Amino acid sequence: MPKHLLPLFSLLCLVSCQSSPALMPSSRPDSGLQASDFASTPDRYLCTVERSQDGSSRIKIMDLSNRSVRAVMIPGQVKSLDGSPQNQKLYASALQNGQMALFEVDITRLTVQRTMSFAQVGLSPDDFLIDQGKLYTVGTQNNKQTAVMSYDLATKGWQPLVYNVKPGMLEFSTTARTLQVLSFGVDEMTRTTIDVNSKQTVSVNYDIAYYKGESKDTLYGGAISRNGRTVFASVNNRINRFELNKDQIRALPPIEITYAQARHVALSRDNRSIYVSHDQPNRVSRIRFNPDGITYNIDEIAFPGTNNELVVF
Prior knowledge:
313 residues; mainly beta; Neuraminidase; five-stranded antiparallel beta sheet; 0% helix
């Protein structure tokens, strides 16, 4: 996942990894991401988007097992990414000829196929997820109402799930049958959970501020853990962290990045790491959490070219 958020307000080579440790102490080892939330399967691919002046996008795919990088071209401006580790596929939503379409990338063969158009149901998607042959997406339908819908990649059938949900970034919850939509506003954040089977929703609004003193900070991207307890927001040169507990929110110590501005973020599927793209080229930061879920180390991954939206799976 991970997916990206657009700014919301005055908000084929081998490469190596250089480490710059930065350890954050914490007096609350019981908060944040818990060791019990970690999945056992590590991520294999880190994918980033490099935009071209002609409106196309270059998706770069790093194999994290050996740091090799390969690339494919998408004939459109990529907005969002997700991967399917089960079948070694990467998916991208992209604006092509005025319409949002879904493209499928075979990572092994490096082939690209246009799978469908979101215009089939009049949807302008904010984000999407892929799991077990199904796509879940949130966006605005027919320029009127917001909607969360599913699409079967095999039967090519659409199914509406719920309407009138604040659009934003989409993430699975603790199971693939429960979705989370995280929506950022100027001074508030909304987390909506959706039960795919019952189509029941629960929304909670949180008061949240991104400004640091008198500075005019910009929110570029966000992520939420699958257990719904920790939110990450990239703001200028730091990653703000928040702990959610039912309808309560608590700010955790931010993650300071001293060498570049943070842009888009992606949370690994095992909840152990956050990957961050920057305003500067040739680098992606990886923030690896210790078992307490609060303290961390940062290392810099050499990643050629400019990097915008990204996903890890």
